[in-house]
Each structure stands twice: as C-alpha cells, then as structure tokens.
Design a protein that fits this description.
Largest sheet of chain B: 5 strands, parallel
Number of strands of chain B: 9
Shape of chain B: globular
Radius of gyration of chain A: 18 Å
Strand order of the largest sheet of chain B: 6-7-8-3-9
Shape of chain A: elongated
Number of helices of chain B: 6
Strand content of chain B: 15-25%
Strand content of chain A: under 5%
Oligomer: heterodimer
C-alpha cells in the first residue's frame, strides 16, 4: 500500500513538472500578485511592511487555487480514477496521495518564493521566519480544502470559477489566522500558529475521507 | 457434473444495471466458473460499459445480487474491487510519461510484482516502445500498452475488458486472444464487451437487447 501511495504522489509530481508552466507556474503567479500591490499603491516602506503578510497569504491562496481545477478532471476523463479505484488503496488514500503531490508541486515552490517577496517588502528576518512557519502550517489545509472543492466539482466542465466560489469562503479562517500569526502584536502570533496547526490537523483527519466519499459518488 | 466444488468466480442473480440514474439492464442472471470467457455484445448505448463497471464494483447494482468468489458484493465492496482487473475503454495512460513509467505506475497501484513489470515488456511488442512518451504513440499502440496491464492480474480471479479489440491490428488481436485464453487456463474468469465479432473461437456470447420500456426508466438521479 505504501508503494501504491507514493506511486501516485510521484506520478502527480512528474505530471505537474511536465505540464504547461511546470513547477514555476505557482511561484510565478505568486510573485506576480505580490508585485501588483506596490505598483498599484505606491506606498511608503512602512506601509509595505504592514501589508506584506496579507499580500503573501492572499498570493499563496490564489496560487494554490489556480492549479486545482484539473486535479481530478484528467484522471476521470482518461479512466485513471476508475482504475485507481480498483487498486489497493481506498479512495481516501488516493485523495491524500494526490493532495501530497499537489502540496509538494505547488507548496514547496511557494515556500521558496516567499522569502524573496519578504525581502522585496523589506520584512525583517524574524517576521519572515514567522511568515514561512505560518505558510508551512497553513498550506496543507489550503490544499486539502481545495481538493474537497475540486472533488465536488469533478464532473463539471470549466469548474474553475465554481471551485473558487466554494474554496475561498472555506479557506478564510486559514487566511485570517495565517496573517494574524505574522502581524499580531507580541504573543498573539503564537495563538495564530496554534489555530493554523489545529485547522490543518482537522483537515488532515476529516477531508481525505470526505474527498474519497465524494469521488466514489462521482464514479457511480 | 462437478458443481459447487469451487464457488463460481462471478455470479449474478436478477442483476439490474443503471447509468446516471437511468435503468439500462434488468434481470441479468449469470454464472461464470473459473476459466469461463464471456463475450457481451449489443448495440451502442445498450449498457455494455455500465455492466462492466457494475461487475467491477465501481457502480453499485441497481437491483438484484452480485457475488464474487462466493462473497456477496455488499458484504465487502472494497474487496470485490480489489479482486477485479478492469481494462476500460479509456486507456488510463498519461501522454507526458513514458510507456515504462505508465505501466510501472499501474503495477504499483494494483499491487503487481516487479517480475510482472519485466514480463509486460515482452507483450504486444512493447520493448520497442518502452521509453517512448505515450503521446508519441498511435491509437493502436496506446491500446496495446493499456491491454498489457493484463499481466498485472496477480491473484485477481476476474478480468473485465471493455471493447479490447478496438484499434488493434491482426497480430495484436491474435496476441490478445492467446493472452486471454492463457488467463482462462490459469483459472480466471473473463468478461469482455465488443460490438464487433470477436476473434476467439468457442467462447460464450451474451447478446444484450433493449427491453426496458421508457415508462419504467428511473429519471431521478441519486
């Protein structure tokens, strides 16, 4: 079963790496969003530092979002999901493997890009560290919630906008605690990180089974 | 008569099959002993693919009962699915990846041994295509790659094939026929659909006919 699990993770990573834009798509999009704010606001450095956590988190959320539309669509169209459902793994673990592949393909490049954006926004090292920690704790929850929405809309054509409508409200708590854990006054940040960790833990416990159940219905 | 010495691989009783809430087939009663090969024919849209997916346990029966190796489907749906190897009409191959990577992936997901991956290379002339990305293959070559996954059957007792002959040239069709006969001799039961005559002598054919009146059709989607 472990072999089957990592076979799915690795295959999805390879497919992400070879698809249009590859692994640079998400960080490129992320950097683009982060560049737009200073250009549009023309702010003072102090303002930049103030908005930086929010900009990075919104950019991260959008970057996770743009890649989700096709996460199940191709596997359904080419018969892969049917064939995986006849394999050793329950669909909940297939979903978890796909989430992990997605997280590594899109989350890791985001984590590498985030310090560069922090540097451009003149954040100090301690704040950058907190920002990275908050992303590390929050990105798995963002991915799993997004996966759930992608499963719900899996049979539909052009589901991208619908996914965004479902995902963004569900991901608001992650966004709020993510920004709060970086920008809160002394002491508040840790509480934010704890909430982020709890949301990710809850998502990890509940969502793979939920995604598996939704996929089972999609297959029927 | 040697009945009941081994449970039949597949048994259905009054099985009904639906697709997206629409009832397609009813009253299907079948028994497939180890080594049996059944060709399911019938016009387009009659429900051949839906029957295969129902037998595989991907879609629940719309009615009636289904057993695999003596175990009722509802008792262990996951075990039922793990006991079937299905080669669907769609090839389930990723165009960006090589033949080798695609086949290794399915071997791992279906729990086949490394030896069977080595064996699959010798099937359907795949050695020559082994490192080529699937997107560079013709339709017939893709079908051969997809069918080569039959080598991953392991100890699964039931093989289900949906339109396996489409796109195959004469040599590949002959190799598929030989391969299926070999699986049957190994004690597996095989159900395959085809809307055209099948180049295998002496196998049973089930011809599906539309017999569900429109008034009886379920329109509600569950």
């Amino acid at each position: 079963m472990t072999r089957a699990f990592f076979a799915i993770v690795l295959r999805d990573l390879r497919l992400h790496a070879t698809s249009g834009g590859g692994l640079l798509l998400a960080p490129g999009f992320f950097a683009l969003v982060a560049t737009l704010f200073p250009l549009a606001l023309n702010p003072a450095p102090a303002t930049l530092r103030l908005i930086a956590p929010a900009v990075v988190w919104i950019g991260g959320l959008l970057a996770v979002l743009i890649s989700l539309e096709r996460i199940f669509g191709e596997d359904i169209e080419d018969g892969s999901l049917d064939a995986m459902a006849l394999g050793l793994l329950p669909l909940a673990l297939v979903a978890l493997a796909k989430a992990l592949g997605h997280l590594v393909a899109f989350g890791v490049p985001l984590l590498v890009t985030a310090p560069l954006i922090a540097l451009a926004y003149q954040l100090d090292t301690a704040t950058t560290g907190k920002l990275l920690l908050s992303l590390l704790l929050g990105l798995p929850a963002l991915t799993l919630i997004g996966l759930f929405a992608a499963a719900l809309t899996a049979g539909l054509k052009r589901a991208g906008a619908l996914i965004a409508l479902i995902v963004v409200p569900l991901e608001l708590p992650v966004l709020i605690f993510g920004v709060w854990s970086v920008a809160a006054p002394a002491g508040g940040g840790q509480t934010g990180l704890i909430y982020l960790a709890l949301i990710t833990l809850g998502a990890l416990i509940l969502l793979p089974a939920a995604v598996g159940a939704v996929l089972r219905l999609v297959l029927e | 008569m040697t009945e009941d010495r081994i449970a039949p691989v597949l048994k259905t009783e009054d099985l009904a099959v639906s697709r997206a809430g629409r009832l397609l087939l009813t009253g299907l009663t079948l028994t497939l002993e180890p080594g049996a090969i059944l060709h399911v024919s019938g016009e387009n849209g009659i429900g051949k693919t839906s029957l295969i997916r129902t037998l595989a346990g991907l879609a629940p029966p719309a009615g009636g009962r289904l057993w695999l190796s003596g175990v009722p489907f509802m008792e262990d749906p996951q075990g039922h699915r793990e006991s079937c190897l299905m080669i669907a009409h769609e090839n389930a191959l990723k165009p960006a990846l090589s033949v080798a990577r695609n086949l290794t992936f399915w071997a791992q997901v279906w729990g086949a041994t490394d030896a069977s991956v080595a064996a699959v290379r010798r099937l359907f002339g795949l050695a020559a295509l082994w490192e080529r990305p699937v997107r560079t293959l013709s339709q017939g070559q893709k079908r051969r790659v997809s069918l080569a996954r039959l080598a991953f059957a392991g100890d699964r007792p039931l093989l289900l094939l949906d339109e396996p002959w489409v796109g195959l040239d004469e040599a590949a069709a002959q190799e598929l026929a030989d391969c299926l006969f070999a699986h049957a001799r190994a004690g597996r039961a095989i159900v395959m659909t085809s809307h055209q005559p099948v180049p295998m002598a002496g196998i049973a054919t089930l011809h599906l006919k539309a017999h569900v009146a429109p008034a009886q059709e379920e329109t509600e989607t569950v």
